[in-house]
Amino acid sequence: MLSVIVPTLDEATVIAASLDALAPLRAQGHEVIVVDGGSRDATAAIARPRADAVIDAPRGRAAQMNAGAALARGDALVFLHADTRLPPDAPGAIAAALARGARWGRFDVTLDGHSRLLPLVATAMNVRSRATGIATGDQAMFVARDAFAAAGGFAPLPLMEDIALSARLNAVAGPPATLRQRVVTSGRRWDAHGALRTIASMWRLRFDYWRGVAPARLAARYRSSPPSRAPTLIVFARAPVAGRVKTRLAASIGVDAALAAYRELAERTLAVAAGARAAGIVGEIQLWCDPDTSHPALDAWRERYGAALRTQRGADLGARMRNALADAVQDDGAGIVVGTDCASLDVATLADAAAALLAHDAVLAPAEDGGYVLVGVRRDLDLFSDMPWSTPGLLRATRARLAALGTRAAELPMQWDIDTAADWARYRALSARTPQMPSPAPASARVAQR
Fold first, then answer.
1. What angle do CA 135, 136, 142 make, to 5 degrees?
2. Class of residue 153 by CB neighbours under 10 A (exposed 0-12, middle 13-18, buried 19+)
3. What would the pLDDT profile of 132-147 be if each residue is shown by its tens digit?
4. What is the tens place of the pLDDT at every residue in 250-268?
5. Domains, the chain, ranges and CATH?
């Protein structure tokens, strides 16, 4: 009996086809276990009727695959990426390899994608694996249960967990069975980043792993590659309740007027966001709400602007922003956070921010009051802990943090937001002259690299 273990994270677009391809194995008495690492989409719901078990585990392939192995009942374990298809005769091929005395192994791989270099990449992967006895997750590794236990399972590494397990299995169970039957793995990573660039990056990562660079550093480099999709736009908002929004402004113009101003600014921000999404500049729009998503106005904004509602989570603003961005940057993504009161935010500004993230790890749009109105990242960065929020020193402290982290950062032109009666009067005067804010300079002139 085989236990096929499939780690997943936000794979709703492919998981149905992947698991449907395993239906014949289930019909033969083998089991399929899906281990989800906290998907934000419908991955788990789609998988449940197509698998014998769907379980949750801490995010990270190593932890997820170990959790699946702990639940598995099979004599041998097969670790299958969500975008990889086994050949039809996989059970017989694995059984034959184990009967010949092998304790573990992998398949040859074919990469399915657009680049003409993918056949060459796949051939190189297969030849290298056969020569070195090292397998990768793309090759559908399989291992006898006792050998997996003897190797100690997957090491808790953020990257290279397959290479580490291969080395350990070679030591405790002998060389792998290198099967000629081919699995088909998606070439989306190579297509997204360019085949030559991806090849060079992966070889450099493997070389640095071999010479002892910490896997955590390698994982940070791996995640800092250009985002494979348009960035998620995260709008931080509060439920529009009188006395809880625009409190500084309310001291000058009154609670009810401040509430009306907040609603107007929030809808303006969401309209800009929707325009950026229609232009393909950003991907999903997420409205992260405080204290929760229950206010009727938030649901109305969701309907009107196509924004997914999320509840802010974290002890302070910094923790809440980092949590939201950490979700966005998973799986080669990027995220941009804005508030609801930047009077100068427009589609061109969001286009500049998205363009900056193609070549930088972070982007900021500074504000006239010494803070910033936009921050974007393409990897998880500790930019928000112990910061002087709501003070003129925030931008300066954030610049220093970026420099200390060795982060490639870009800054957009100065923006302004609305906190005081003077800010509100400025905004109303501009709104009276024109229905839209003045057009900014072209993107090529707007991003200043630091």
1. 65
2. buried
3. 898 988 899 999 999 9
4. 999 999 999 999 999 999 9
5. 2-223 (3.90.550.10), 232-449 (3.90.550.10)
